Input
Amino acid sequence: MSATDILRHEHQVVMLALTGAEKLLNDITSNGTVDIGRIRKFIDFSKHFTDGCHHIKEEKLLFPKLVENGFDGDSGPIGVMLYEHQEGRKFIRYMSEIISDNDELDKSESEKLASNLRSYITLLRNHIYKENEILFNMADNVLRPEVQESLVLDFNRVEEEEVGTGEHERFHQIAHELAGS
Output
């Protein structure tokens, strides 16, 4: 399995969690029901798996290798991906602020939460498409097999040292719980 295959697989896990987020969004917009516990679980997943595990592999490992191989790190595909990572972090921060210390939300807070959740879901679905269909294909074309192998080892190190042993599997389980599968 190549480094980009690993990232594509992680995208499948994120998409599963986004399916759960869409269910939460539908509950908010159709009947005003906000399941704060599940929203917190989704935010935790987004902070620690999507950003803390997946994006760290891209930003600290894959993207620098692409820059070494001629990609522009400030504009073009990498620049767009980095910008979108920042936008996603903003939406997660806004949602965290809305629900912080709240067990219930008023109508205005629910509407703000729904708006940010909708924007985050849309951003990530489009972002994942661009990475899977464009950037990762470009990476596969320019990164030599030994570079991909080195990235896989680095990804494993990130899993052990920065994410924590067993955390990846725990977040897979959370994604399935969120999606209801």
